[in-house]
TrEMBL record:
Annotated organism of origin: Tepidimonas fonticaldi
Record domain Barstar (barnase inhibitor): where: 36-132
Lineage of origin: Bacteria, Pseudomonadati, Pseudomonadota, Betaproteobacteria, Burkholderiales
Protein name (database record): Barnase inhibitor
Recorded family membership: Belongs to the barstar family.
InterPro entries linked to this entry: Barstar, Barstar-like_sf
Length: 180
């Protein structure tokens, strides 16, 4: 990806699979464009409440967010919009679970929230790009392996660099001040 025109081939208000991009590239693109970079690693989530809790914590959203999808939408739209002019957003939802407790319908409901958020920002002419990936289902550990410290192959989904885990948030003014 060239940094002169990062994401030039990606519509400005879209929710799409991360496929051709790395988290590091998306973070660099956000920095080059002066956009907020919001990253959530959902690999440890098992159900909808886990998803909401992880997104809330990793995006540093206000405490009332973690209750439901409507509150998530409100935090990513009205709350941010009222805080002042926004330059744009690059959002990553990595390892959305594909488990029976977070089935296809639940995944679509989550992505629909982000599609609605993209529409909200499109109406205000603010770029909002959301990239996502799905996690592989993880089998529970057999009882005889629970005491073992050796990880199973499915325990290590992806090695994400510490730099990729840094994020900016419209709710975290300290990040912006320290980055300047």
């Amino acid at each position: 990806m060239t940094m002169e025109q990062p994401l030039r081939n990606v519509r400005t208000n879209i929710v799409q699979s991360i496929r051709a991009f790395t988290v590091k590239d998306l973070q660099a693109a956000a920095e080059a464009l002066g956009h907020h970079f919001l990253y959530a690693n959902l690999a440890t989530a098992l159900n909808k409440q886990d998803i909401l809790d992880l997104i809330s914590a990793q995006y540093q959203l206000p405490p009332h967010n973690g209750k439901n999808l409507d509150a998530l939408y409100d935090c990513l739209t009205d709350v941010v919009h009222k805080s002042g002019p926004q330059t744009g957003f690059i959002v990553v939802l990595e390892h959305i679970p594909t488990s029976p407790k977070f089935d296809k319908e639940a995944r679509e409901q989550l992505l629909d929230v982000f599609r609605d958020v993209a529409d909200f920002w499109a109406e205000r002419k603010v770029p909002f790009r959301c990239f996502y990936s799905f996690s592989v289902a993880r089998a529970p550990k057999p009882a005889d392996l629970e005491s073992s410290d050796e990880p199973l192959l499915t325990d290590k989904l992806v090695d994400v660099s510490p730099q990729a885990l840094r994020m900016s948030s419209p709710f975290n003014a300290g990040y912006w001040l320290s980055a300047a």
